[in-house]
Specification:
Length: 440
């Protein structure tokens, strides 16, 4: 599984994020260890208070564990991975919390440790933790038989289409997958060897080359969204300038936006709005199915947790009744019967814990399978909408080219008519002079 981590502060904000249901289908506080409080906000407030006794600002170590898509990973597998990380980084005895998140049919975990050694009141140093987590991640892929990502196999094989949060938000505003945008820009760069070819390749995909306000080279789409070519095409500014020339020779973004706004036809704008509206309606139906499914799953889980709690209390009471009290209890201790009953109770308690966890895991895995099936429908719908929007972008470019050809044809026709009119005027003048020359 992929392990991502960082040292950080802001414990109260992190607690709110981990427990937030807004972006997740399900959230579960799985374990709190080493804190006086057994709830996450209280535990993190405790970590924040202890850290104030030191000069450490990043007193938490936060890590996310993401299994491959389609891998239904058990709770034990997550716990074993977390224990491996603790041993690798030297965090075995530190206070820790584990939170499970489920989103889009996938379950991942967050493990957060306090870095503050309360006995010595100093932060535990974590040198080269990224390299150590990479080693643990490789080991987990091999242990579970998962297909290892190319980026983990070799650093030079990392995905060139990785994107930042800002790029993702920008792509969401436009309605396209950022990976598609990056792929389109990269293809334009690879198939062109000069500025004219690159600009033509961009226009075929519905983008215009321009001079950025803060960046050198940018691309603009029909909505006026600006994309940094060095970031989206994965090309260094020096390489861009070597092939495309001085960016100051390009038109400014405002001029391009004005041209795009003037050249867009109302009919094409209506087509785009219709496509977006249809896609939104189809996605809203799937969103309703998702909301209904998540609500039903939460209700089923709540009922199962409540049944487990009720059964646990009843069984705990029954086990407690087996232990005699008073003089009978003293006699059982003397004869050794008390220890046997206690050992039997402990075995039953462990079996009960494993039984409840197995029932819980079975329900969660069933919910994940149902959610994954729905997520496939959502992905298919989004892909169809993205493809349609990309086709419309090409239509915008074709319309602009057609409009440019019409204007050029009109100017050419006007020039020819003007030239023909001037020729006819000269001929009339010549005939008039000849006619005056024959007069008596």
């Amino acid at each position: 599984m992929i392990l991502k981590a960082k040292e950080r502060g802001g414990a109260p904000q992190l607690a709110r994020y981990l427990l937030a249901m807004r972006d997740n289908d399900h959230v579960e506080l799985h374990d709190v260890r080493g804190f006086a409080c057994d709830d996450l906000p209280g535990a993190f407030s405790e970590a924040d208070a202890i850290a104030k006794g030191t000069r450490c600002e990043k007193y938490l170590f936060s890590m996310s564990l993401n299994p491959p898509e389609g891998a239904n990973t058990s709770v034990e597998a997550f716990e074993q991975a977390i224990e491996q990380v603790e041993l690798k980084l030297g965090l075995e005895n530190q206070p820790r919390a584990i939170v499970f998140h489920e989103k889009d049919g996938r379950r991942h975990a967050h493990a957060i440790w306090s870095r503050i050694d309360s006995e010595r009141m100093r932060a535990i140093n974590l040198p080269h933790y990224k390299m150590k987590l990479r080693d643990v991640s490789r080991k987990l892929y091999l242990e579970h038989g998962w297909t290892m990502p190319r980026g983990l196999q070799d650093r030079s094989l990392r995905d060139p289409l990785s994107f930042t949060r800002a790029e993702w938000q920008q792509a969401n505003r436009v309605g396209l997958d950022p990976r598609e945008i990056k792929s389109a820009f990269r293809q334009c760069w690879e198939i062109s060897d000069n500025k004219a070819a690159f600009e033509r390749a961009l226009k075929e995909r519905g983008f215009w080359l321009a001079k950025g306000d803060r960046r050198g080279f940018v691309a603009i789409d029909y909505r006026g969204e600006v994309y940094s070519l060095s970031r989206y095409a994965g090309v260094k500014p020096k390489e861009l300038e070597a092939r495309l020339g001085d960016p100051k020779q390009l038109r400014a973004t405002d001029d391009i936006k004005a041209e795009i706004a003037n050249s867009m036809s109302r009919k094409l704008e209506a087509f785009i709005k219709d496509a977006e509206r249809d896609a939104k309606q189809r996605l809203s139906v799937l969103a309703f199915r998702k909301t209904e499914m998540v609500g039903r799953q939460r209700d089923e889980r709540q009922k199962l947790w409540a049944a487990h709690e009720q059964r646990w209390q009843a069984e705990t009471k029954l086990r407690a009744q087996r232990l005699p009290k008073g003089f009978a209890g003293i006699w059982h201790r003397l004869t050794g019967q008390y220890g046997k009953i206690k050992a039997e109770n402990e075995r039953e308690t462990l079996q009960t814990f494993r039984r409840d966890r197995a029932e819980k895991d079975a329900l969660v895995l069933k919910h994940l399978e149902d959610r994954q099936a729905l997520q496939q429908d959502i992905k298919a719908q989004r892909t169809m909408a993205h493809q349609e929007l990309m086709r419309l972008r090409k239509d915008v470019t074709n319309y602009r080219q057609l409009e440019r050809d019409d204007r050029e044809h009109e100017r050419s026709t006007t020039r020819e008519r003007k030239k023909e009119a001037e020729t006819q005027k000269r001929q009339r003048d010549q005939r008039s002079r000849r006619h005056r020359g024959f007069e008596p």
